[in-house]
Inverse folding.
């Protein structure tokens, strides 16, 4: 089993490093958000895009990019580490057989492999999310809290996880402790934004932009399967947002999205159903990894069979799946945003292969 696991990790690493070493330009949101902020940090100018202070990205990943000699290779390494962490989490919860299946799904998940060849936040966020999950399963709450705080400083939606855990498990003490650590970690970033942007911005200044990308009149002209994925509007560039002051445009975009929801409830419902389909069924948008489509089918079959191990895995994974579902339904249901949560779908799918008594972690 150990040799097979090593082979899977090496295969997964090969895919990720292939994408990381491809000769291709950076994507726009890499070049003009993370990379440009990193360039300013490296020069000692602080978090800026152009000449303007910015809060378009949470601070941890741009700071790391500014320190790394080759961020793409680092992302590929992080994405490879996620295979091992998902395997460790599965072994904690259900033993080596399930851990092996999860490692196989992680290794050949092309959504994650492709992201491992970018300088987007997903590889780091996946590692931090899985690290939190492993320590949470081991009941090492302080370690879990530290990793979730780092995850929130990478991608804002992780702030929902302690509250999802409390709601789903009806355990309040540990989630509240984690939430306290997370909020303490966020405080310096929120204070910096208040000082530099002259507005209270606890997270980022692109939440409204992303919300509007999902909910706008252009969505009504799209085919059902393409709705809610940011295809109908031109995203403002990072430079355009920074030059306009960021806070006011973001609030304007948020208001436009809310007005669309109020004025077109029927069309909004169609978009909601389209996004639910991409998040929760094997029917995926073009270009999405077949691995996830098969895994979500297996996960639903495992839930239908209602075995003891599946119940254990689902009980553990459910808060994380609730968060990604809420984020996908409210904002954009796209593979990039969903990919860090794939391991939790894989846990449920892999429970089909379990033999013996489940863990109670």
């Amino acid at each position: 089993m150990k040799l097979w696991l090593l082979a899977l990790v090496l295969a997964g690493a090969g895919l990720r490093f292939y994408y990381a070493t491809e000769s291709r330009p950076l994507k726009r949101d890499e070049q003009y958000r993370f990379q440009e902020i990193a360039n300013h940090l490296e020069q000692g100018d602080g978090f800026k895009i152009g000449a303007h202070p910015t809060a378009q990205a949470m601070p941890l990943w741009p700071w790391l990019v500014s320190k790394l000699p080759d961020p793409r290779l680092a992302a590929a390494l992080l994405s490879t580490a996620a295979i091992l962490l998902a395997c460790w989490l599965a072994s904690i919860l259900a033993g080596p057989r399930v851990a092996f299946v999860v490692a196989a799904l992680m290794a050949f998940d092309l959504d994650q492999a492709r992201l491992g060849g970018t300088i987007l936040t997903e590889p780091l966020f996946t590692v931090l999310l899985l690290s939190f999950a492993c320590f949470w399963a081991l009941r090492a709450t302080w370690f879990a809290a530290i990793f979730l705080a780092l995850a929130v400083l990478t991608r804002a939606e992780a702030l929902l996880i302690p509250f999802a855990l409390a709601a789903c498990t009806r355990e309040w003490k540990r989630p509240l402790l984690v939430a306290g650590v997370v909020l303490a970690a966020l405080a310096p970033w929120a204070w910096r934004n208040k000082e530099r942007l002259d507005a209270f911005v606890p997270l980022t200044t692109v939440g409204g932009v992303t919300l509007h990308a999902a909910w706008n009149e252009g969505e009504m002209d799209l085919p059902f399967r393409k709705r809610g994925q940011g295809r109908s509007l031109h995203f403002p560039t990072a430079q355009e947002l920074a030059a306009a002051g960021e806070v006011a445009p973001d609030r304007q975009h948020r208001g436009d999205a809310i007005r669309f929801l109020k004025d077109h409830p029927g069309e909004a419902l169609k978009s909601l159903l389209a996004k639910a389909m991409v998040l929760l069924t094997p029917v995926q948008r073009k270009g999405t990894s077949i691995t996830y489509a098969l895994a979500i089918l297996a996960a639903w079959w495992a839930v239908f069979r209602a075995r003891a191990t599946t119940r254990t895995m689902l009980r553990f994974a459910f808060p994380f799946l609730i968060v990604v579902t809420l984020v996908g339904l409210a904002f954009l249901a796209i593979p990039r945003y969903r990919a860090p949560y794939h391991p939790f779908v894989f846990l449920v799918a892999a429970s089909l292969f379990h033999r013996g008594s489940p863990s109670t972690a």
Summary: Residues 2-353 form one domain.
